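hey so i finally got around to running the thing on that chain from the lab meeting. sorry it took forever, my laptop kept dying and i had to restart like 3 times. anyway pasting the input first so we r on the same page abt which one it is
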Amino acid sequence: MLHRGMAGAREGNPDYTPGGGPMDMRSRKGTIAVLVAVLTTGLVAVSAVSLDTNRLLSFRNELQFSADAGAHAGAIQLLEPNDPTYTADTAAAYAACYKAMQTVVQVDSVELGGWDDFNNQFLPGLTPFNAVRVVVSQRPTGLLISHFGVNSPRLRARAVGWVQTDSSATVRKVILAQ
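ok and heres what got predicted. didnt touch it at all, straight out
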């Protein structure tokens, strides 16, 4: 029995075999199962990459928040009547107070120096100290890529806090830069 649309298939098609043409579903029994397995694997892989990317971006924001807190506390410590000799300890303590993915961040360095307004850059060791730079880092845990033997990257964040003195008044501002 010929299907509608297949009426001329016998005469004009040299590859036509009775009962085994392109419309025969008996030759496709396992094709759908294989296709579903491949597409499901691909969907799971894309979802895992998406989740890990989201977690890494969130982790980076939490690290930046920690560095900002340390730099802000250090810059405030540079203001009078505070003792500037405790600036590095204060900045490190405040930076370590904030967690990233429920783990305490590692404070890599706290540097005292000066801020160059003209070039917008931190100059380490420049005296008198009016700026502090805090660098924190941490390796994120619990990522899905770790189940495939891929090590997660160590992420770093830095922030500079400085005290800006207004030349016309005795007002001092604490400013943060990243």
